[in-house]
Amino acid sequence: MIIEQLVNAIQIGSTYAVIAIAFTLLIGVLNLLNFAVGEVFMLGSFIGLTLLTLGLPIWLTLLLSMFLSGLICLVIYYFSFDLLKGSPELIPLVSTLGFSILLQNAAGLIWGTERQPFPESVSSQIINFGPIAVSPAQIVIFAVAIILMISLDRFIQKTRIGRGMRAVAENPNTANILGINSRWVIIVTFFASGMLAGASGILFSISYITVEPLIGFHVGIKAIAAMIVGGLGNIRGAIAGGFFIGFLEIMSMHFLGSQFRDIIVYALIFATLVAMPQGLMGVVQQEKGRI
Amino acid sequence: MLSSYQEGILIFLGINILLGWSVYLPLSTAQASIGNAGFMAIGAYISSYLTLNVGCPLFLAIILGGLTASLVGLLLGLPALRLRGIYLVMGTLAFGEMVRNIFLNWEFFGGAYGMRGMKGTSLLLVYFWVFFALFCFYILSRSRLRLTLDSIFDDEVVSQLTGTNIVKIKVGAFGFGALLAGIAGGLYAHYMRFIEPGNFSVLLSVYMLLFVIFGGMRTYWGAVLGAAVFTLVPEISRGLKDYRGVFFGGLIIAFMILRPKGLITRDLLKMIFYLPKKKDPLETN
Asked: Which of A231, B23, B159, B279 would you label with A158, given CA atoms 20 to 30 Å apart?
């Protein structure tokens, strides 16, 4: 029973971790809280629904949906960031709230506001490994999440643009002086954030096999919580935070009942912000660069 | 005479103006909040409980509801001092949702079913509070306190160095903002005759912030205009039907690009209200 819950926690945690990275990338590199990431997550899921209904295989659906989500994020970049350069930090934030309202309503217009079934693309037939019962869907979700995390980490640590991202995160002006094309770096950051959000949307729908326009908001808040717990702008922290929130959610549902699930998450956000603004990870790992 | 439809719009306009001010006040000390629907919910629930179950007169119930909200606001204001910018935005977001979820699970206040049967909010009562608050804001704008608020908004550290007690001012701004939201909540509950936790979602808090940002966050007239636009545009744009939300989102994005300081700025007010030779008494020489 408890092992089953742990497997569930890892499954939902890996979804949260991926979307939390999408949030934390933008905060780490640009100090921008992009509320519309939750909506990109939702659109990724809906695009996946359409592609799967067209008969595409799941791996192609995932890739295409990630690409399109990245493009949506570039639109957000242009209107909410590029055109608003130099304004106080609240203005881009409000602009992304505008995108959040716009995209949520647009999804309602295109796909309908009702909760819709998501085609079962990966079997959820339980397989027993000794005491542990896992479905292929859960294995796929976890594997895809891990692959995304590792490739992002390699990308940031090893490639030229990744180094650029770290430099811009440190100080945009110095990065420019040192010959980094910061505009290009920022565009790639937004695209990567959109791709991760879209991928997370697909992973979420594979496990819950439903989609609706409001999931972006609900999961978005969980992702923000995961990011805060891990320390803002800290990618590894966001991963740990995602699993932590997934674990906390499943455990509070299991031991206290589902009505306490959300209260605990919100209380945790507030308490962490006030008591440990560096995130719980900040205690373990002292500042080692921002992302 | 006004039809009940028109009266309804005017009542909502008044409530929205109060809500806009509830965000404007903390924002004028550089504290952005998207949790004010939580304070509104507290005011709504407490005042409803008082009129329904205690038999308290409406006017008193609304004041008590507002005071309860402001007490919570003061308590929240203290830890909020540690948070700035996007951290505070996220903290207040969590607070608002926490309040909503607590009411959702609190059977004493009806849980998910909510409370029903409140009545009595009239146009007169709403605008009594609006004009009372307007009067207070007018006094505030003529006092030294406005200079203090401005100095905190511009640079908190320098303000503190010159001897301002920023703890008192920032927490106070938070508490008074909560008071306004609580009063607006009481008025709302007794107009709607029915409240449930779903009425006080994050989206409502976001709209309150938008009133202020849209109208202009450096003067109290900004929230009035913002509330007016946000109350009337959805009514006017009824013809757009399902496209309303998309239009609305687009409008916000466009305005952040075209006029990021809001519709009413202080320069604009100066241009309208002060003759060229008359000097603004608050402008330092």
From this structure: A231
Nearest to A97 among B87, B244, B252 (CB): B252
Weakly modelled stretches of chain B, pLDDT under 70? 1, 274-285
Residues of chain A predicted below pLDDT 70? 280-291
A102 neighbourhood in chain B, CB within 8 Å:
245-246, 248-250, 252-253
B80 contacts in A (CB within 8 Å)?
274
In terms of CA atoms, which chain B residue is nearest residue A100? B249
Q: How far apart are CA A81 and CA A97, in angstroms?
A: 13
**10 Å Cβ neighbour count for A205?**
27
Q: For A11-65, how does the pLDDT look when each residue is reduced to its tens digit (9 = 90+)?
A: 999 999 999 999 999 988 888 889 999 999 999 999 999 999 998 888 999 999 9
Residue A290 has a pLDDT of 53
The answer, for B263 touching chain A at a CB cutoff of 8 Å, is no
Q: Any residues with CB less than 8 A from the CB of A204 and at least 6 apart, and which?
A: A15, A41, A45, A215, A219
**Is there a contact between B217 and B25 (Cβ–Cβ < 8 Å)?**
no
Q: Tell me whether residues B90 and A109 touch, CB distance under 8 A.
A: no
Nearest by CB to B249, from A87, A102, A259: name it.
Answer: A102
The 3-class SS string of chain B reads: CCCHHHHHHHHHHHHHHHHHHHHHHHHCCCCCCCCHHHHHHHHHHHHHHHHHHHCCCHHHHHHHHHHHHHHHHHHHHHHHCCCCHHHHHHHHHHHHHHHHHHHHHCHHHCHHHCEECCCCCCHHHHHHHHHHHHHHHHHHHCCHHHHHHHHHHHCHHHHHHCCCCHHHHHHHHHHHHHHHHHHHHHHHHHHHCEECHHHHCHHHHHHHHHHHHHHCCCCHHHHHHHHHHHHHHHHHHHHHHHHHHHHHHHHHHHHHHHCCCCCCCHHHHHHHHCCCCCCCCCCCC
* pLDDT for the residue numbered B282: 57
Instruction: Compute the distance between CA of residue A113 and CA of residue A108 in angstroms, rounded to an integer.
Output: 5
Which of B102, B103, B122, B116 has the alpha carbon at shortest distance from B48? Answer: B116
Asked if the C-beta of B90 comes within 8 angstroms of chain A's C-beta atoms, the answer is yes
* Chain B (54-83) residues lying within 8 Å, Cβ to Cβ, of chain A: 79-80, 82-83
B75 chain-A contacts, CB cut-off 8 A: none
pLDDT at B285: 42
Q: What angle do CA B208, B107, B179 make, to 5 degrees?
A: 30
User: Contact at 8 Å (CB) between A21 and A200?
Assistant: no
Domain boundaries, chain B: 4-201
Judge: B250–A225 Cβ closer than 8 Å, yes or no.
no
**Alpha-carbon distances, residue A37 vs A69, A259, B244 (angstroms):** 10, 26, 22
ipTM, two decimals: 0.84
Q: How far apart are CA B27 and CA B35, in angstroms?
A: 13
